Amino acid sequence: MTVTSELREDGIRVVTMNAPPVNALTVQGWFDVAAALEEAGRDLATKVVVLRAEGKGFNAGVDIKEMQNTTGFDALLGANRGCYAAFKAVYECAVPVVAAVNGFCVGGGVGLVGNADCIVASDDAYFGVPEVNQGALGAATHMARLVPQHMMRTLYFTARTIKAADLVQFGSVLEVVPRDQLDDAALNVAGEIAAKDGRVIRAAKAALNGIDPIDVNKSYRFEQGFTYELNLMGVSDELRDDFAGTEKSKETT
Question: Which residues form the signal peptide (predicted)?
């Protein structure tokens, strides 16, 4: 897992996730993302963050293979704490976070972009929360920031995905552009923000978080409690084993 952070001369900090083959993050990977966002917020030279990814897609969620290859509950606890830290770091970053989403953005990926301040996506991007397929719960808090309530419930219960182009009508995705124009589109909107007085933008971020009707940190933490219950029941291990076996079969065919 590699997380890089580059501060440009215009005050835009570009944070890039790169965890081949599908950007499914390990426990350490989630904490690395959190650390990068926290560092960005502390640096007064940073006016706005662009959160992006290399590879096939933006984020495939938690690394299921790591979890199934770890005895006990250490990987589960680590993943839950890491996701919580990463989502929280995006939301509480002292400056706005622009998410540049390419390809798939599922599970934990939705947690990241749902807590971002602005979302730009490529025309092949789609979003989903397939947690129920793996015996886990979470990120409904963040999907609810992208779509209306009934749509969120349908996506959650069915594990369906929704195209970025369909989110434009809800106002959660600012624009959809061809894949090769994604970085430029994200940098364009980030540039508009960076051109403002940084002191005002930081105050505005704090003010908008302060009037948010939902405490996303507590809401997500509540969801995680049910994930723990499902794991103690043995349901999650059973479904993750099935998932891991299916993925292994795909790799050998």
Answer: none
CATH architecture of the domain with residue range 2-178+208-252:
Alpha-Beta Complex (3.90)
Mean pLDDT of the chain: 94
Instruction: Give the Cα separation of 201 and 108 in Å (integer).
Output: 27
- Which residues, listed in sequence order, are joined to residue 128 by a DSSP beta bridge? 106, 161
Only one residue has tokens 């301040």, namely 117
Which DSSP string do the residues of 113-169 spell out, in sequence order?
A: HHTSSEEEEETT-EEE-GGGGGT----HHHHTTTS-HHHHHHHHHHT-EEEHHHHGG
pLDDT band at 212 (very low <50, low <70, confident <90, very high): very high
Check: CB of residue 1 under 8 Å from CB of residue 19: yes
* C-alpha to C-alpha distance for 194 and 187, rounded to whole angstroms: 10
Pairing of strands 104-106, 12-18: unpaired
Cα–Cα distance measured from residue 134 to residue 115, given in angstroms and rounded to the nearest whole number: 23
Residue spans of the domains in the chain: they are: 2-178+208-252
Spatial distance between the Cα atoms of 190 and 200, rounded to a whole number of angstroms: 15
pLDDT at 251 over 60: no
